[in-house]
# Entry
Amino acid sequence: MSVPVTLIIDDPAPCINVFWWHAGERQKTDQPKLQSGEAIVREVPIEFASEVARVLHQWDIKGKFSVLPYPAGLGSIAEGLKGFPKSDVDRWLGIVRREIVPRMDITPEILTHAKTLDLATHTLLEENEREWSTHQTAETLTPYIAYALKILKTVRLPANGVTSPWDFGKKVEPEYQRAIIAAQRQVNNRTRSWYFLHSSQERTFQSKVVHRDGDGWLVRIVAQCSDVFWQTMESQDTSDAYVRSIADKVLTEDGQRGRAAELFHAGVPVVMLTHWQSLFSNGRKTGLRALDEVGHRIRGAWDKQARWVTCYELASEIAAGKWK
# Structure
């Protein structure tokens, strides 16, 4: 049986670089900087979504693409974001529908991936979503997740899974699981779903079914190939040699070394993780070039021995008992 490979892309949103908000909150400034001292770019050009889509298409890369429903608390993407033309938001969403959805599942990364939204007042709480989740129950998490799913459904990007911002839900994971199940049933009439929260460096397969109810199920997808593209944000090196060195960490040209190779040669499905800001690389796009090189290497080294799948397709195979 060929080995499944899937790519998780976290943090995409129209117009903004959500990492700017993360760093700004952490650094307590509206002029956040990278460790290198370089200013973090606040906005991501709309056209970058098409550039990412071209790389996905070139190598038939499949997986998951987050769409933040209420990014950084600036507003619902169905209605527009404060400080940005609605036409830009709609254009980005159109690119996602036309060029990315054919290969990637869509998930919310809950709502804001920043401070928690008060659903009653639509104002932001002081706690960010990560902190807020630590003291919630299924009863309070369900409407929060459901609102995220409803926004995506409204913009014609229905989600078959859910992504955690940071480690949202980790401390109350059984409650979180029940909330995902309830929210998906309520909004999308789904009884089969999956979620991404955990990463692991183990060589044994970590993803698994965490709930069954008749023919319904919930699968926990675990990323086991970490985001090596992240470091491109901190480097101003855009040389081909640098790009190849980043790709080497995932897979060398001969297909024998790198984290993906470790999993592949162990017969373990390869779940790769990256982030929107990792591919954007603070405007240099070296991360996207490295992903392009990885796609090229997987096709060249493994050909028919590996196959790209979406996260939902992998979850379905796990639920059917094909991978344990």
User: Anything to note?
Assistant: Residues 152 and 262 are 36 Å apart (CA to CA). The mean pLDDT is 97.
